[in-house]
């Protein structure tokens, strides 16, 4: 695992000029001057070619390797961790719709596949950041164990309790959801869930990192974590956990740069994707208009906007955006022109992202291998594997750690 992390560390560092600039904010990335032919080839892709490449990272790697031979290493670096290599798994633990009427389909399959992968479950379980307890309920059915979900949002706890009572399944008497801020839990205190198997599905950034630190201190026997949203951290920069990773070539990586690891929306319904894309065209159209009026060529941050704003039309959206920037727009604006500018810019963004997205999964594996090494250094036997396909969830890396027993 250390060799793989080191190889990823050098490879990501060697190529950082290609993945650090965010295409949405950077119309003319510096790498375009170093690789002008690559830049032209990307920008020259038709809409159909671009859409086809977005769906197939391997073909994209082959294409881009013509200009960037180093990209060929990507498949070796990701061997074993590519989402689509995941073997078909037993679906035994996936709850039926009758057993889980209020669980979204994808979460039902996700939780079931994870529960299958975690067999045998031979200890009481703590579901860390349990939300409404979808995984906790699944684990209760998949085992004979007590399952305690810890969740910080009281509304989710209450809704989860209602679901437990509504289901009236005998196994559900073994599930409890507790209102708890997990960041307040410290190892070796009365509150710490000692002697339980700690399971976390999609606990974000600091929430899973706090789990690793405290669980290691507590000497937890078994830890199973599917991490998510690595960039959600109180620190402005990435801090490696393991001793072996302290000398990273990517020292000082910002939380914002870490965000690339989770930039994937394969699970969003088509309509949601289309609405999000339209909103992006509007945001870029407004930005082009703003730059033209202010003669300021630097991207100006705009607070996030809702797809509901699409109902109001592009001019209204631009007036809203200008007010967010403390300004206003002239009475006469050629709206179709600026909307077209936004569409053109967004087409460029999509093409440049084909290149940037080549580094998305490698960055994620690099981040996760640091956790694996940290756990190994603490005396755990650790495996890292995908537990479901990318379509079920792109955040599908499962870290399984068992403490060596002397
Ligand atoms: C991405 S959701 C995952 C929920 C659930 N594990 C699942 O997979 O459906 C992350 C959950 O962490 C909860 N959370 C956020 N901060 C927390 C904290 N400090 N303590 C406990 N839970 C927290 C959120 O309310 C949310 O329910």
From TrEMBL:
<dbReference type="InterPro" id="IPR025714">
    <property type="entry name" value="Methyltranfer_dom"/>
</dbReference>
<dbReference type="GO" id="GO:0008168">
    <property type="term" value="F:methyltransferase activity"/>
</dbReference>
<dbReference type="InterPro" id="IPR029063">
    <property type="entry name" value="SAM-dependent_MTases_sf"/>
</dbReference>
<dbReference type="Pfam" id="PF13679">
    <property type="entry name" value="Methyltransf_32"/>
</dbReference>
<keyword id="KW-0489">Methyltransferase</keyword>
<feature type="domain" description="Methyltransferase">
    <location>
        <begin position="123"/>
        <end position="233"/>
    </location>
</feature>
<keyword id="KW-0808">Transferase</keyword>
<protein>
    <submittedName>
        <fullName>SAM-dependent methyltransferase</fullName>
    </submittedName>
</protein>
<dbReference type="GO" id="GO:0032259">
    <property type="term" value="P:methylation"/>
</dbReference>
